[in-house]
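Whiteboard transcription, Tuesday session. T.W. wrote the C-alpha cells on the left side:
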C-alpha cells in the first residue's frame, strides 16, 4: 500500500508542477488530472505538506474558487502570490 501512496503523491506533485503561472486548478481538478476524481481531500493534504518550491501549491484552490489554506504563509500570502502572477 505504501508504494501506491507514494505513486499517487508523485502524480499529484507532478500535475501541480505543470500548472502555468497565472492559472489555477481546484483540488478536485488536480485529483481528476491524476485519475482519482474523488481524492480531492488527499490532494489537499499533499499540498498542505508540500515544501518543494518547484511545486506551486499556491496555484491549487478550493472548488468554490476561494484560495483555501497555504502552509507557507497562510491564505493572505497565497492571495498575494496569485495576484502577483495574474491568476486573480
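and on the right, the sequence the group agreed on:
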Amino acid at each position: 500500500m505504501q508504494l501506491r501512496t507514494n505513486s499517487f503523491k508523485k502524480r499529484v506533485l507532478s500535475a501541480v508542477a505543470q500548472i502555468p503561472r497565472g492559472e489555477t486548478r481546484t483540488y478536485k481538478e488536480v485529483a481528476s488530472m491524476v485519475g482519482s476524481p474523488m481524492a480531492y481531500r488527499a490532494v489537499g493534504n499533499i499540498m498542505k505538506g508540500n515544501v518543494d518550491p518547484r511545486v506551486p501549491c499556491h496555484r491549487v484552490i478550493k472548488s468554490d474558487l476561494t484560495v483555501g489554506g497555504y502552509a507557507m504563509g497562510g491564505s493572505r500570502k497565497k492571495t498575494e502570490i496569485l495576484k502577483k502572477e495574474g491568476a486573480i
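Someone added at the bottom: The mean pLDDT is 92.
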